[in-house]
Amino acid sequence: MQNILHRNEIARGNKMIQKDSFIKRIVSWLFFQNLTKKISKIFLIIFFVMGMFPFQISGNTVIKQFKLEWKADHFLKTIHGVCNKVQHQDLMLTKKGYHYLLEKPFLISVDVSSIKTGNKNRDSNLYDLLQYPRYKTIAIHVEDISYKETKTIIKGTIQIAGKTKPFLADATVKEGPGALSVNGESQILLSQFDIDAPSFLGMPVKDRIQIMFQYDLNLQ
Predict the structure, then answer these.
(1) CATH tag for 55-218 (out of 2.40.128.110, 2.60.120.380, 1.25.40.10, 1.50.10.10)
(2) Sequence-ordered strand ranges (E) for the chain
(3) Residue 45 to residue 101: CA distance in whole angstroms
(4) How do residues 110-123 score in pLDDT, each as one tens digit?
(5) What are phi and psi of 149, to 5 degrees?
(6) Is 58 helix (H, G, I), strand (E, B) or coil?
(7) How far is Cα of residue 14 from the mean position of the Cα atoms in its chain?
(8) What does R_g of the chain's alpha carbons equal in angstroms?
(9) For the chain, which residues make up each domain, given as ranges?
(10) If residue 38 lies in a helix (H) or strand (E), which one and from where to where?
């Protein structure tokens, strides 16, 4: 009889232990669910704040290197030109998501006398056409950077020989560790600026000039 009572008491004890263990599991599960919701809310707040205050880079030394070249087509050959003296203002960008946006316009200035084509006589004729030294610089005013599908579009104005016209450039942006590289191309018509196309062997080059540029940035 005592053995039966002892076994019943043990069984009741085991049931109490199982019940207590079950309650603990439920409490743990509820705590985990509550913690997960809190963590999710914290991440949502963080992403919202990051969207409100995008990462910015700016400074005097952001642009590490800037290259500006051009080419003109002639029926005999393609003439290449290099702009050796290029100055620029500070560049300020804002990163929003995966894209870099221009925070404010900036100016690029090209010294006309630094434009070289590899032929001194041709260079001298080019300076005359650009009305140098009356106009000593070519001014490129970059006003906006936008994105369309996979393309980066740079908008602004360009001033040549005292006349200002809008321009568009297609560019590609590559981001590396602490650096950004932008390569792009644009086209202008000499006739837009009332410039006669220079001649080579008695034949003028085509009116359309292709401009190529590259600038490398150090991200700060």
Answers:
(1) 2.40.128.110
(2) 55-57, 63-73, 78-83, 86-88, 93-96, 99-102, 106-111, 115-116, 137-148, 151-160, 163-176, 179-189, 199-200, 203-204, 208-218
(3) 23
(4) 999 999 999 999 89
(5) 55, -115
(6) coil
(7) 68
(8) 34
(9) 1-53, 55-218
(10) helix 2-52
Enter the tokens of residue 122: 């041709």
Would you list the DSSP string of 118-130? S-HHHHHHHHHHT
Main-chain phi, psi angles of 32, to 5 degrees: -65, -45
Q: Which two tokens stand for residue 148?
A: 């369309």
Q: Which residues pair with 200 in a beta bridge?
A: 203
* Preceding amide of 54 cis, omega within 30: no
Angle at CA of residue 136, ends 131 and 141, nearest 5°:
110
Any idea how long the chain is?
Answer: 220
Does the pTM of the predicted model rise above 0.90?
no
- Between 93 and 214, the more confident residue is 214
Of residues 24 and 137, more confidence is placed in 137
Give whole-number Cα distances, 40 to 36, 37, 49, 53, 54, in Å: 6, 5, 14, 20, 21
